[in-house]
Specification:
- The protein is α/β, with parallel strands linked by helices.
- Among the domains are: 32-232, NADH-ubiquinone oxidoreductase 51kDa subunit (Rossmann fold); 236-323, Roll (Ubiquitin-like (UB roll)), CATH 3.10.20; 445-524, Alpha-Beta Plaits, CATH 3.30.70.20.
- 38% of the residues lie in helices and 15% in strands.
- The strands form 5 sheets. It has a 6-stranded mixed beta sheet with strand order 1-9-8-12-10-11.
- Strand 3 (131-136), helix 6 (139-152) and strand 4 (165-170) form a beta-alpha-beta unit.
- Residues 434-443 and 513-529 have low confidence and may be disordered.
- Its cofactor is [4Fe-4S] cluster; FMN.
- One of its GO terms (biological process) is cellular respiration.
- Residues 330-374 form the NADH-ubiquinone oxidoreductase 51kDa subunit iron-sulphur binding domain.
């Protein structure tokens, strides 16, 4: 099985089921340069604006970044605003992947960058856009895009290709940094965080111009559809969701995979290809903002938005994470809930306070808090829904509540008895610690952890006031950690909390020297046995 808590590689092994669309040529080269790309896919003729929108509509092209918004509607909205305002629109490729369980866009950008650029330039020409921006998260994706720009003669300094100026923007590896408004804010020179107000990119995006923003796979699918035409494109997959789907499969698998499969393929077959347990205890669908489904649903579901939704799952950003029977599913959920709480943008109450409280509430349930703790958890999660400045609280709460609704036997064992008797195996991937001084910014780990000396702690609670994202006050009047790992964006406040502790009980230590998060009076893993 996959190593415990091991971060996924930038470019996992790729498997193709059926005829390849997006992965064509992967058997020829590790990366398709422009010459190889054109040999594999052939040239691409321009498609006028309304014809391009009609093509996207004919193939039912939805955004592949998680939200699933119809691409044709986006395209028409940007064109309409640009015409009304008399300004040039901007095209943005969102290749940011801050979610630890997703690598499909990284695979595309690293191995088939020109297919992504084909779709983006097709949209730019149809709209009359003169600016193209590609937002990336990792060194490898940035290098691949930079090479692809050079191979096409694209530059931000001189207009050399179809009147398009192109540039790359680097975003930190954070859950919230891939959100559309966060990407636009980063492109505009601000932090890669949601701005706290709802704005439509089609109205006002990069530099205030109408902006078409979609993720890398969406643009690659557009390029494939433009070459094949709607009829040939629809020969693959199910009629209401034609074409192929890119999936990242990790968790309890032989090794992480990125797969291209026709829509409608049985989910069980995909899991089998990745080496998942024959009878998984459950499968997390759609990633860490998605939903758990049980083993029966995983056996009956197919890989499509409609099928997964009918079983309570979600296609989302195309991440699938099975877990085996040997691990505590609620313990696995708690690990991710802690990480999601620390990934908060810290700009609204549901993020800053609600998510740590929800993670702490699940901890209380697993530590024997009984029915009262479960009711308190449900109350906290309901209070956080629909009130955030971005979709992070909603997605995080959906993930947590789906675990309670899926693993009912385990929940009952923890609420009514002494626990399920299984350890938490840590099979769901989370980021590795990053040393302080790394070039990564924002919510990357700082490489340090908060530690407490319980012989000194007197329960003053000042630390929880300073950094509630990481520390909250437990029912016993002493601090309990939501997540002792300190991300860079909270490092200054964590240091302030250490300085403010009147008992000198709190300290920061290197993550490599620290142990698991401490909670009085016993560790999280002990409470699971």
């Amino acid at each position: 099985m996959n190593a415990r808590n091991a971060p996924l590689p930038d470019v996992p092994h790729v498997v193709t089921v059926g005829l390849p669309h997006l992965t064509s040529g992967f058997d020829r080269a590790a990366r398709l340069d422009l010459t190889t790309h054109l040999r594999v896919h052939g040239p691409l003729a321009p498609v006028p604006g309304e014809r391009l929108a009609a093509l996207a509509e004919d193939v039912s092209l939805l955004g592949r970044g998680g939200a699933g918004f119809p691409f044709a509607r986006k395209l028409r909205a940007v064109a309409k605003t640009a015409l009304r305002r008399g300004v040039d629109p901007v095209v943005v490729v969102n290749a940011s992947e801050g979610e630890p369980a997703c690598r499909k866009d990284s695979v595309l950008v690293n191995r088939a960058p020109h297919l992504v650029l084909d779709g983006a330039l097709l949209a730019a020409e149809a709209l009359g856009a003169r600016t193209l921006v590609v937002a990336v998260t990792r060194d490898s994706t940035e290098a691949s895009v930079r090479d692809a720009f050079a191979e096409r003669g694209l530059t931000d300094r001189r207009i050399r290709n179809r009147g398009i100026r192109a540039r790359i923007v680097r975003t930190p590896e954070r859950m919230v940094s891939g959100e559309a408004s966060a990407v636009i804010r980063a492109v505009n020179g601000g932090p890669a965080l949601p701005p706290g107000r709802r704005e439509r990119a089609a109205e006002s995006g990069v530099a205030g111009a109408p902006t078409l923003l979609s993720n890398a796979e969406t643009y690659a699918q557009l390029a494939v559809a433009a070459r094949l035409g709607p009829r040939r494109y629809a020969r693959t997959g199910v009629p209401d969701e034609p074409g192929t789907v890119l999936l990242t499969v990790s968790g309890a698998v032989a090794r992480p995979l990125v797969l291209e499969v026709p829509s409608g393929v049985p989910l069980g077959y995909v899991l089998q290809l990745a080496g998942a347990p024959p009878l998984p205890q459950g499968v997390l669908t759609g990633g860490y903002h998605g939903s758990w489904i049980d083993a029966c649903a995983a056996h009956d579901a197919a890989v499509s938005r409609a099928s997964l939704a009918s079983f309570g799952g979600a296609l989302g950003a195309g991440a699938l994470l099975p877990i085996g029977a040997e691990t505590c599913p609620l313990g696995e959920t708690l690990r991710v809930a802690n990480w999601l709480a620390a990934e908060s943008a810290g700009q609204c109450g549901p993020c800053r306070l609600g998510l740590p409280a929800a993670a702490g509430g699940l901890f209380d349930v697993l530590e024997g808090g009984g029915q009262a703790a479960l009711e308190a958890l449900r109350e906290v999660t309901q209070a956080a829904k629909g009130r955030g400045a971005c979709k992070h609280p909603d997605g995080s709460v959906r993930f947590l509540l789906s675990a309670l609704n899926t693993f009912t036997d385990d929940l009952a064992a923890h609420v009514l008895g002494g626990g399920c008797g299984r350890p938490t195996s840590a099979v769901l991937p989370l980021p590795a610690p990053v040393r302080a001084g790394s070039h990564h910014r924002g919510g990357a780990p700082s490489g340090e952890r908060l530690e407490v000396d319980w012989t000194l702690c007197q329960g003053h609670g000042l630390c929880a006031d300073v950094v509630p994202e990481l520390i909250r006050m437990g029912h016993d009047g002493y601090p309990a950690f939501a997540d002792a790992s300190v991300p860079l964006h909270l490092h200054d406040r964590a240091r302030r909390a250490v300085r403010r502790c009147p008992a000198l009980a709190l300290r920061l230590e290197e993550a490599s020297a620290a142990q698991a998060p401490l909670v009085p009076p016993k560790s999280l893993e002990q409470g699971r046995g």
